[in-house]
Specification:
The chain has 557 residues and is of the alpha+beta class. 49% of the residues lie in helices and 13% in strands. Helix 2 (85-105) packs across helix 5 (149-169) and helix 3 (111-124) packs across helix 5 (149-169).
């Protein structure tokens, strides 16, 4: 329902993403607690439509946004990578605006509609059309986030209200004529026949003259490309989950493990394991997950004990990690230098590993435990390497290869540009595109018929993007060649043979659905425009708007 926000000049432009899309969620996991996640109990929240926003208004709207986000993304906002407080606040204020507008219009939701929406939601999360029990939904989803059934009811009521607002303010978009829809269909589905000549840089590598002077000049002109970012090296001890699986399995076997697995399967079914073909296969996967989860907890506990012991050694030096690991019979490794963007090359480290590594210092040389999918890490600072530019002698092979490839692309693009002019003259003189291509030592590729709605054209391979080919085709007159279209590896010239007639029988069959799609898109566009204007005007008296327009310097509500 609520989309993202972007800025245009000094104004905020607000975009709504459309109706809610329900995502399934793994109930076996536990969501993070929302305490401290942005709910504010005091302060100035501003006004919307002259109505003073109270703390409870903000909290209610925030709870609604949390539920919306979870249903759309399958995770809570404060667990999502890259999500921040400003993202949440702006969405909350949009919800408050829509709520106030609905109240001004007297839009209300009946209890029957609310019950139906709740049942539809719980059924969408169930299996084989069977709804998830409300008490389980409350226990497994709402309570861990500090939410309750009242929050769910408010959220569903808001969703239904917004759908009515979309119908009201999106109405102008629905009023599209059949003739306009037919024209749009023809525009998107009319196919063209075309040929193309591709100029691939790989065909020109042999023509590149590689000299020391040319390579040196290329290196000098591209020093910024070869600058190495800040990098670090860390020593680490890894507590691999595989080392704890046998112990975890033995501990589970001391309990009523089979009965517990059966109860989990009975509660969640095989829907969480779509690859399982039988109930036994699903139960086997549940067993594996439970054993692995206990093994990971054991690995984390040992990593935590190890880290506490290392951190307690004085004086605190990075070498303490390897020294203590050796005493405990544990192996310690050292990574190659790595940057914040890519992480270690030796293994697939979690994002927290890289982030922690770049926070290490001589005063704080240790970090951990750092959980990963297959174990737990404890790390220590080994080396810090500031940004630098290697000398040409150090990276001569790389620079030479880059020079060859760059020069080959330039040669390919020059040949393509020359071919465009030559082919244009020859076609004007009566030759076909194929004849002009062959005369210039090129082989034309006959492309399958395609339209603006075509989703793929395998014949292109990686030589050009489909969108680039469409752009060239539908901006060129039939019987003429396009200008040379440059790509990263060369480019192409396209000859548009003709526009093909629209398949009337296919059009007749597809037009009803196409009409519905056009109307939905126009309705959304009309509603977006209305919301954009309302937000720009009505959110001026809110702390979030002040903060956004001041470049983030205003005090948060």
């Amino acid at each position: 329902m609520i989309g993202s926000i972007r800025k245009h000049s000094a104004w905020l432009w607000w975009i709504i993403a459309g109706l809610t899309i329900i995502s399934f969620v793994y109930f076996m996991g536990q969501a993070p607690n929302r305490n401290g996640g942005g709910v504010r109990s005091t302060g100035n929240y501003g006004t919307i439509y002259g109505h003073t926003i109270l703390a409870q208004d903000f909290q209610r709207a925030q709870a609604g946004f949390y539920l919306y986000y979870w249903m759309r993304n399958g995770q809570w906002p404060d667990k999502s990578a890259g999500f921040n407080r400003d993202d949440m606040d702006r969405e909350v204020y949009i919800r408050l605006l829509l709520e106030q507008k609905a109240q001004k219009l007297g839009i209300k939701v009946g209890s029957d509609a609310l019950v139906t929406a709740a049942n539809d939601l719980l059924r969408s999360l169930g299996r084989n059309g069977q709804p998830i029990a409300m008490d389980k939904f409350q226990e497994q989803v709402l309570q861990p986030e500090g939410l309750g059934v009242a929050d769910l009811q408010n959220f569903l009521r808001d969703e239904l209200v917004v759908q009515q607002l979309i119908q009201v303010y999106g109405l102008p978009g629905v009023l599209v004529t059949p003739a306009e829809v037919a024209q749009l269909y023809d525009r998107e589905h009319q196919e063209v026949s075309a040929q193309a000549v591709f100029f691939d840089a790989s065909n020109y590598l042999a023509q590149v003259a590689v000299t020391p002077a040319a390579v040196a000049q290329f290196y000098t002109n591209n020093l910024a490309v070869y600058r190495l970012p800040d990098r670090v090296q860390v020593s680490y001890v890894f507590f691999n989950v595989t080392n704890y699986l046998s112990q975890a399995k033995a501990e589970w076997e001391k309990t009523n493990f089979t009965e517990y697995v059966n109860s989990v399967y009975a509660q969640y079914g095989a829907s969480q394991f779509p690859d399982a073909k039988t109930p036994d296969e699903a139960k086997a996967k549940i067993r594996e997950l439970l054993i692995r989860d206990r093994a990971l907890r054991a690995a984390r506990q040992q990593a935590n004990d190890f880290a506490n012991a290392v951190f307690a050694i004085t004086p605190a030096t990075p070498a303490n990690l390897a020294t203590y690991a050796k005493q405990k019979g544990l192996g310690a490794g050292v990574t190659a230098p790595f940057s914040a963007n890519y992480g270690p090359e030796e293994f697939n480290a979690p994002a927290a590993f890289t982030k922690s590594a770049f926070q290490l210092s001589s005063d704080e040389p240790f970090a951990g435990p750092i959980p990963a999918a297959d174990g737990v890490y404890v790390i220590a600072l080994a080396n810090q390497l500031p940004s630098s530019i290697p000398s040409l002698e150090q990276i001569s092979a790389r620079v030479t290869q880059d020079f060859r490839e760059h020069s080959a692309v330039a040669l390919a693009q020059s040949a393509g540009t020359n071919f465009y002019y030559t082919a244009s003259v020859q076609i004007a003189a009566g030759k076909t595109f194929a004849q002009a291509a062959v005369a210039n030592g090129q082989s034309p590729l006959v492309l399958p018929a395609f339209s603006l709605s075509t989703q793929e054209l395998p014949e292109l391979g990686e030589r050009a993007s489909l969108n680039q080919v469409k752009q060239a085709a539908f901006t060129t007159q039939p019987g003429r060649v396009s200008s040379f279209q440059a790509t990263a590896d060369g480019g192409f010239v396209l000859f548009l043979q003709q526009l093909l007639p629209v398949d009337t029988s296919r059009k007749s069959a597809e037009l009803p659905q196409f009409t519905a799609q056009v109307r939905r898109a126009r309705q959304s566009e009309a509603f977006n425009l209305w919301l954009q204007g309302e937000a720009n005007r009505e959110l001026r008296d809110t702390p979030f708007y002040a903060k956004a327009t001041a470049g983030g310097t205003a005090k948060q509500p």
